[in-house]
Amino acid sequence: MNGDLESTLKELGPEYRDVVARLRSARDIEPSGARVFSLPRTEWRRHVGYLVAASLIVALGLSIFMQDAANAPREPYAGAKVYTVAYAPTEEALEIIVASQRADGSWSNDFITRQNAAALRASDDERMKIAYRRAVRYLRSKGLAPLTDDELKVRGEYAAKVLAGV
């Protein structure tokens, strides 16, 4: 210790000498070199065996659980419904469009947002008009606009042609 610390220790009193002695002795301890976690070789094998068995049980359970999903009948172009719902502006289709609109007025991407806004534009329902205005506000913030009626018609005809070929 330096002189300044010695004088401070004298001012504090003799009871603090024991505390300082304990603190200074702590740095004299050296690591023992013993491993913190060590298992005999046979123990490691047993633990690895448990892990392998648990993994096999989980894999077997998942394969049984997912078997129904693998055999489920699939509709061709099932994901295309999101892209094609705006082409048939029925009340049911417009309800699907409004229900899937995000809080910011968009849908999953700008392609769908432009055509869904165009589909909502033709409706007289007040909820549809509100959804249309939210979509237009979103599109304007991106520098875009809803599709024109002709563009929406062309996309609908093209989708019908593609889906008929399936």
Describe this structure in words.
This protein has 166 residues and is mainly α. The protein has eight helices and no strands. The chain has helices at 3-12, 15-26, 41-71, 80-84, 91-99, 110-121, 126-141, 149-164. Helix 6 (110-121) runs antiparallel to helix 7. The chain is elongated and about 95 Å long. The chain starts with a helix and ends with a helix. The model has no long low-confidence stretch (mean pLDDT 81).
Jot down its keywords.
166 residues, mainly alpha, 8 helices, 0% strand
Blueprint of the fold:
Blueprint: H1 3-12, H2 15-26, H3 41-71, H4 80-84, H5 91-99, H6 110-121, H7 126-141, H8 149-164
What is this entry, summarized?
By secondary structure, the chain is mainly α. It has eight helices and no strands. The termini are far apart.
- Describe the global form: elongated
Number of helices: 8
* SSE order: HHHHHHHH
Number of strands: 0
- Beta-strand portion reads under 5%
Uncertain segments are: none
Structural class: mainly alpha
Average of the residue pLDDT scores: 81
Classify the helix fraction into a percent range.
Answer: 55-70%
